[in-house]
Every structure is written in structure tokens, then in C-alpha cells.
């Protein structure tokens, strides 16, 4: 596909939509009057935010039934989830704005989630079933001022499902799907996903409980190098349970406690183009969150606290390694409203991480591998009545090993009077502390220093046609230094003494063509001045058309991902020294569709999803399989 054509087409579509929107004044508003929380930690109207925040609503998730959390996220501008189109057990990496997995902070109900024993302390999205998710917010850019370490390229805040106002209500579902690579036509159900939930409200108490189970077979994780090879299929299973209890004695105080148990088990191969019928891993997580809120006349006091423990068993090369981790997070913050236009947010966050690693080769004890952070922070939020909105803030990270780290955020925006055009800009910094694995494993270096990050962005957002059309464009420049890299010659982690620079543009254009017909499109451009761009495509396009007619809903999505240059390592004889190689991964295009229908007075719903309709054989990660044309049928009940 001609890249210039894509760029000019997007620009033309943006400008023509802008002109067309100014000329017509009709149609009903869409869901653009959203409330977001990511950029202040408190609810506010989206038009008052100085960030372009992407929100995946419950309605959006309903239209994407059959897709995983990873597949849903990869349709957002600037977001690439590597492994989202691979076998169900393939490890996932979230890459945003030219960054890496450790630069994205994931929250669940406002509480950071992580695996302290992982190489990057990042959260494994495979643990979370989409059926537990209510909505997702993605705020891009350096955000350590409010969220601390790891929020260098984005914050993804996942909100779990909430209770209804009825005393008792519930749901159950069963999804059956195929598991094929391209050019393989096996219609036997190889994926079974089932579960149910019960919830309700009794006076001042509310409750929510759910159970989910997934079993998948049918695709090898590794990809054969030739059509003459045949690899064994790799199985994946997952069990999830969730309980939430809430207490609301009055309109000022609210308290929720949530407990989660998640377990996954999967077979995996030995790497790119390398089959293995013995390797497997399992991961078991216990997670609890405490979420009290207290509103008073001039503001609100919130505590987001949580703890999790994760145990992973990795059987590889004939040996087993047991990883254990414990994490604790407590974030207490208060919003005080001096006036209806000026607010001060003050908070303090405590985080504790520890891990252990046991194998026949090496042991890492919890007494050795642990650290903690205490972070005071503050932000001033000003929303004028003449269009100016300002968000200023700073945070001091006090690390028991690295000392102090200061970050800041300057984020003004301005809505032009008598228009819906909002101009925005921001300068923000972030930091990423080395993980316990990078410090204390046999490959670690205790002299590593925190990575520093800075993002400068500017753009515009506008709504037209009585908010039927939303257009946004933002450009950014990001720099990072003291990046932690791995030396494949010396087999150890080290601090890279140069700078990594990334620049890019993100364009969103949403248009509610009619009351029941909506078009959402986005285009992403991202360019790195160094290192591989295999997981951060230079060009990416998404387009989604949704149509609803009475009880029938349909959704068709298109995705284009440009060429990428993959770097990989070989160890040639006779010296077997690491040698870096490069390979161009071809661009690819995917078309997916979903159709749903509600019957029995909305008590029963059916859906049919078809992924990769054109059955394209493409590469997302060098040496690993991708899914061809696959079907999923789902049946759900509500009571």
C-alpha cells in the first residue's frame, strides 16, 4: 500500500470532514459528552481535559464481543499490543508512542497492578477477561506526576463492572470459537469461553460476583519456517473469579472492597520458528483492592489501595523456575475546591515490591529483592469561564534505593469562544525505576539508574454538528535517557548512555452519520531515531463502522499496519557470539466483523464474530503464528 496515499487520504478526510461539519447542523448527539478521570484522578467532563483521552465504553465493548482486552486496545490510536493476533497463550507487550512495555502503567479501578517478579514489573493482560471490564481509559504522554513510576508513555485505567440498582440481577454466557491459522479451514470449536455474574443492591449495600473460564487449543505459538513443517498445538486455559462488596451509608461516604483470583496455564515454544512439546507456564494471582471515598462540602478524599501476590511456574529447557512476587500500593489523595473554577489536588502514594526466584540454577530471596517508594504530589486545576483550562503539578519520588526523583506536568488548554475548538498542549516528565529482576537476577546490575522521560505535545480537538462529529489531532515529541537495555554479548542489563527520541502524530475522526450509524477512524504516525520499530509501526490506520437497528447491531473494523524492521539475534558457529540481524516484516491489513441480536425482551442475546475475514497470512512477531479467519458464536442470558 502506498504510504503517501494513506497520509494524504487521512489529511484530506480530516479537512473535508471539518468543512462538511461546519456546513451542516443536524442529527443527534453521540456519546462525546463523556466523563473522564485519568488526568485529574477525579471525574470531570471530557471537554475540560487538556489531554486527548481515549475512552472505550461499555457500549464499545458490547459491539466488540468475542475480542480480548488486548485486541480491543490495539484499535486505539497510538497503541500496539504485540501478541494480540497470536495464539491465546502468547505473551503480550503494550507499546505506545514508540515506547516499551515497562513504560505503560496499567490500573484496575485506579489501583496500579504489576508483577514484581517480572522483567519489567508490567501487568500480564492475559490474566484479565474482557467480560469483567466495564470501560477503559487510555491517557497518553508522560504521567508520573499523578501516577508515579512506569507512567512514561501512557496510563491505561481499566474499570471493572459495577452493580445494578436491582436487588438481584445476573447474567451468563457461553462463547464457542474456532482456532485457525491462515488457509486452515477447521470449523470445530477449539475455544470455549463461559461464565456468569450475579449482582444487586440491598438498601445501603451492593454486591457483584462473577466467574469466568476459558479453554483454547488449536494454534502453535511458534510459526514453522516452511509449509512442510508441522508444529504441535499449544493449549491455553484461564480461570477468573471476582467479588465486590460495597457500602454506601449516605451520599457522602462510599466504600468498596474487591477480591480477584486469576489463574492461567499455557504451553509455549522455544522461540521464533522453534517448536517445543514440553514447555509450559502457569500464573496464579490473588488481588484485593480497598476503595473508600468521602465527599465533603468543598471537596473529596479518596484512598485507592490494593495488594496482589503472583506465583509463576515456568518450565523451560527441562527445568522449572518458580517466581513469586508481592506488591502493595496505597494512594491517598484529596481534592479541595477553593471555588467552582479552582481546585487543589494533594496526595501521597506508598508502593512496596518484593520477589523471589527459585530454580536449580539460581535463587533470589525476598530478603534480597525488595524496594519501596513514597511519593508526595500535588496538582492545581483551573477551569475558567472563558475557555482556559490549566493543570499544573509535581511529584517527588522518594525511593529507598535511588533517593529522590522530581517530575512535573504543565498542561494548559483553551477553547476558542463561541466555538467547540479546543487547543491543547503539555510538557510532562516521567521516570521508570529498574525492576527487581533487572537489579538482582543473575543478569542484573545493582548500579542501574532510573530511566527519565519527557513528552511535549500539542494539538486540537473539536466537535461539530451538535456534537455528532469529533475531530482531534495531536503531535508529540518524546525523549528518554538512561534507558535500561540488555547486552546480548555480556548477558547483563545496562544503562544506555544516549538519548532515544520519538516523534509522532495521532488523528481521530468520529462521525455519527445517522442516529444508528457511526464511523470511527484513527491514524497513527510514529518514528524512532534509533532501535527497532518492530513493535511500534510507523503508520497505522483503524476504521470502525457500527450500525444499530432496533435489536440488531453490527460492527465492521479495518486495520492497516505498515512495514516494520525486526531485529533478532543468532549465535553462529564456531564461536557462537551473538550477532544482530534485521528482517523487514511486511505490512498487513485486517478486516473483522461482529453481528449481535437481542431477543426475549433483551433477556437473551446472540452474537457472531468473524476475525480476519480475508484470511490474510501476516506476521505480527517474527517467528510466531498469527490467527487466520476465525469464527466465534456467543449466547448470553440476563435476568
TrEMBL record:
<keyword id="KW-0813">Transport</keyword>
<keyword id="KW-1134">Transmembrane beta strand</keyword>
<keyword id="KW-0675">Receptor</keyword>
<dbReference type="InterPro" id="IPR012910">
    <property type="entry name" value="Plug_dom"/>
</dbReference>
<feature type="domain" description="TonB-dependent receptor plug">
    <location>
        <begin position="52"/>
        <end position="154"/>
    </location>
</feature>
<feature type="signal peptide">
    <location>
        <begin position="1"/>
        <end position="21"/>
    </location>
</feature>
<dbReference type="InterPro" id="IPR037066">
    <property type="entry name" value="Plug_dom_sf"/>
</dbReference>
<keyword id="KW-0732">Signal</keyword>
<protein>
    <submittedName>
        <fullName>TonB-dependent receptor plug domain-containing protein</fullName>
    </submittedName>
</protein>
<keyword id="KW-0998">Cell outer membrane</keyword>
<keyword id="KW-0472">Membrane</keyword>
<dbReference type="InterPro" id="IPR036942">
    <property type="entry name" value="Beta-barrel_TonB_sf"/>
</dbReference>
<dbReference type="InterPro" id="IPR039426">
    <property type="entry name" value="TonB-dep_rcpt-like"/>
</dbReference>
<dbReference type="Pfam" id="PF07715">
    <property type="entry name" value="Plug"/>
</dbReference>
<comment type="similarity">
    <text>Belongs to the TonB-dependent receptor family.</text>
</comment>
<keyword id="KW-0812">Transmembrane</keyword>
Amino acid at each position: 500500500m502506498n504510504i503517501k496515499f494513506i497520509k494524504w487520504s487521512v489529511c484530506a478526510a480530516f479537512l473535508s470532514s471539518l468543512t462538511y461539519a461546519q456546513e451542516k447542523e443536524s442529527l443527534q448527539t453521540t456519546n462525546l459528552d463523556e466523563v473522564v478521570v485519568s488526568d485529574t484522578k477525579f471525574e470531570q467532563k471530557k471537554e475540560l481535559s487538556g489531554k486527548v483521552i481515549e475512552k472505550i465504553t461499555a457500549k464499545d465493548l458490547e459491539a466488540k464481543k468475542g475480542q480480548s482486552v488486548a485486541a480491543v486496545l490495539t484499535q486505539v490510536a497510538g497503541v500496539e499490543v504485540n501478541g494480540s493476533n497470536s495464539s491465546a497463550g502468547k505473551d503480550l507487550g503494550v507499546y505506545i508512542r514508540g515506547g516499551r512495555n515497562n513504560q505503560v502503567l496499567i490500573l484496575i479501578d485506579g489501583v496500579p497492578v504489576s508483577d514484581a517478579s517480572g522483567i519489567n514489573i508490567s501487568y500480564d493482560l492475559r490474566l484479565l477477561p474482557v467480560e469483567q471490564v466495564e470501560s477503559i481509559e487510555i491517557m497518553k504522554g508522560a504521567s508520573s506526576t499523578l501516577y508515579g513510576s512506569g507512567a512514561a508513555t501512557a496510563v491505561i485505567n481499566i474499570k471493572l463492572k459495577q452493580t445494578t440498582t436491582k436487588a438481584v440481577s445476573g447474567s451468563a454466557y457461553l462463547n464457542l470459537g474456532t482456532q485457525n491459522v491462515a488457509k486452515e479451514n477447521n470449523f470445530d470449536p477449539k475455544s470455549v469461553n463461559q461464565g456468569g455474574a450475579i449482582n444487586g443492591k440491598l438498601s445501603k449495600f451492593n454486591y457483584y460476583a462473577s466467574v469466568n473460564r476459558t479453554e483454547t487449543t488449536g494454534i502453535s505459538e511458534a510459526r514453522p519456517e516452511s509449509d512442510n513443517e508441522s508444529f504441535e498445538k499449544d493449549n491455553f486455559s484461564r480461570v477468573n473469579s471476582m467479588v465486590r462488596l460495597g457500602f454506601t451509608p449516605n451520599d457522602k461516604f462510599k466504600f468498596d472492597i474487591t477480591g480477584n483470583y486469576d489463574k492461567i496455564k499455557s504451553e509455549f515454544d522455544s522461540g521464533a520458528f522453534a517448536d517445543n512439546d514440553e514447555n509450559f507456564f502457569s500464573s496464579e494471582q490473588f488481588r484485593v483492592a480497598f476503595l473508600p471515598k468521602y465527599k465533603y462540602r468543598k471537596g473529596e478524599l479518596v484512598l485507592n489501595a490494593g495488594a496482589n501476590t503472583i506465583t509463576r511456574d515456568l518450565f523451560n529447557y527441562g527445568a522449572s523456575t518458580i517466581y513469586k512476587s508481592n506488591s502493595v500500593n496505597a494512594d491517598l489523595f484529596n481534592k479541595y475546591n477553593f471555588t467552582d473554577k479552582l481546585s487543589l489536588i494533594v496526595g501521597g502514594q506508598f508502593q512496596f515490591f518484593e520477589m523471589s526466584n527459585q530454580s536449580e540454577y539460581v535463587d533470589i530471596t525476598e530478603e534480597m529483592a525488595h524496594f519501596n517508594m513514597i511519593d508526595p504530589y500535588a496538582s492545581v486545576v483551573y477551569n475558567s469561564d472563558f475557555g482556559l483550562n490549566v493543570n499544573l503539578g509535581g511529584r517527588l519520588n522518594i525511593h529507598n534505593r535511588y533517593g529522590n526523583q522530581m517530575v512535573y506536568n504543565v498542561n494548559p488548554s483553551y477553547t476558542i469562544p463561541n466555538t467547540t475548538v479546543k487547543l491543547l498542549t503539555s510538557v510532562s516528565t516521567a521516570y521508570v525505576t529498574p525492576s527487581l529482576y533487572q537489579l538482582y537476577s543473575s543478569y542484573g546490575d545493582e548500579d542501574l539508574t532510573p530511566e527519565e522521560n519527557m513528552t511535549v505535545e500539542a494539538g486540537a480537538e473539536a466537535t461539530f454538528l451538535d456534537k455528532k462529529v469529533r475531530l482531534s489531532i495531536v503531535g508529540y515529541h518524546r525523549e528518554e535517557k538512561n534507558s535500561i537495555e540488555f547486552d546480548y554479548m555480556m548477558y547483563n542489563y545496562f544503562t544506555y548512555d544516549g538519548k532515544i527520541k520519538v516523534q509522532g502524530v495521532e488523528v481521530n475522526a468520529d462521525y455519527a452519520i445517522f442516529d444508528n450509524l457511526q464511523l470511527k477512524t484513527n491514524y497513527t504516525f510514529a518514528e524512532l531515531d534509533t532501535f527497532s520499530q518492530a513493535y511500534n509501526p510507523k503508520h497505522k490506520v483503524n476504521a470502525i463502522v457500527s450500525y444499530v437497528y432496533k435489536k440488531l447491531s453490527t460492527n465492521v473494523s479495518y486495520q492497516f499496519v505498515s512495514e516494520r524492521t525486526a531485529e533478532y539475534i543468532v549465535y553462529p558457529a564456531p564461536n557462537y557470539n551473538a550477532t544482530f540481524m534485521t528482517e523487514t516484516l511486511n505490512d498487513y491489513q485486517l478486516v473483522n466483523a461482529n453481528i449481535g441480536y437481542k431477543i426475549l425482551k433483551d433477556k437473551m442475546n446472540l452474537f457472531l464474530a468473524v476475525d480476519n475475514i480475508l484470511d490474510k497470512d501476516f506476521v505480527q512477531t517474527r517467528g510466531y503464528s498469527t490467527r487466520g479467519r476465525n469464527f466465534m458464536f456467543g449466547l448470553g442470558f440476563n435476568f
